[in-house]
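Quick one before lunch.
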Amino acid sequence: MTSSRFIEALLGAERPLVMEVKRRDAHGIDLMSGRTPADIVAGYEAAGAPCISVVTGRWFGGTPDLLRDVARLTELPLLQKDFITRRDQLETARALGASAVLLTAALLPASSMRSLVTAALRTGLTPFVEITGEAELEHVPHADECVIAVNNKDIKTREQDSGDIGRSLALLPALTAAGTPCPVSASAIDTPETAARLLRAGYRGLLIATALLRTEDLHAWPTVSGTRHAPAA
Ligand SMILES: O=P(O)(O)OC[C@@H](O)[C@@H](O)c1c[nH]c2ccccc12
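Model of the indole-3-glycerol phosphate complex:
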């Protein structure tokens, strides 16, 4: 049993999508379309978001203030998405209102990953560890207390590729074997059908920004019970 509010919320959700607030996509294209963070958060809450991700990283037009603003708007557990490399950033994340923090395996030496996971847990934050390959799983301690997410895009090329959902499908058994209670697939999930396919494969959460910020109807995105009853694609 986990003591993580973030993990509990995802595991208990009818629509287990980590809905993301992201100002721009990787190509610099605006995703807000004139809406405020309050408009977006209200839409996400109405669609039953169990938790919300806030991109504070500059590549995507984010700032730490965006996290603070979203934290004032909602009680939902929040994930900070940025490039965390130092322990003091964990304290800051907590102070801004985060419940979980992104730790990106592709960008962190193994020793830093180990110490940041442990430090995050000690700070009361859930590590949201993002990987792109099986070898990166070796450096994740306390996996039973972490969300482990497969990034379908390549962070080293600043996510300018179109992504490969097959990566998530291939890595799910390794994630489960590593011991995370909450395997997540992140990035490049562009349609409700792709989302349903990943949930049917066994993912317990999906992290989506671009497609949700562009969708006309958040309620068209899958729910757990809808997915269970749908005929296999
Ligand atoms: O817009 P998408 O393709 O749905 O992707 C969301 C999310 O995975 C992406 O925003 C992301 C993945 N890793 C990051 C690291 C920092 C900031 C943002 C990210």
